[in-house]
Amino acid sequence: MKVMPIRYVANVAVATRFYAALGLVQGDSSRSGNWTELNGSGGTLALHTARTAEQDTPGRVELSFETQEPLETLAERLTAAGFEPEAIVDENFGRSLRVIDPDGVLVQVNEHDRELYT
After folding, report:
1. What string of DSSP letters covers 17-78?
2. 10 Å Cβ neighbour count for 3?
3. For residues 52-71, b (16+ Cβ closer than 10 Å) or e, as one string?
4. pLDDT tens digits, residue range 29-71?
5. What's this model's pTM, rounded to 2 decimal places?
6. Which of 32, 44, 63, 113 has the most C-beta neighbours closer than 10 Å?
7. Comparing C-alpha atoms, which of 33, 45, 60 is closest to residue 2?
């Protein structure tokens, strides 16, 4: 599993230039330009265009993971451990599963299909 924090930004292109100047390397991006990945030696930072919804305001960071494991297997393991995940959702990038951690923080785990958005 790979850690992939999602940083909501006002302008993906400008934020990409900033994080590239810090040393991250441009990775996959969505066709729409609302999503891009910047890779570093220790992981990936995802940039997502902030929307008007309160949860996606510029500056917010969401804890996200990318997995190669089937989400059904992960959901079974979480449930067995006493953490009930939400239903697996089809997304425009693959599929995702969301679960609340013990402190009430939403955590998202993604199963990416890069052919869908690159």
Report:
1. HHHHHHT-EEEEE-TTSSEEEEEETTEEEEEEE--SSGGG-TT-EEEEEE-SS-HHHHHHHH
2. 12
3. eeeeeeeeeebebebeeeeb
4. 988 889 999 999 888 999 999 876 666 778 888 888 888 899 9
5. 0.75
6. 44
7. 45
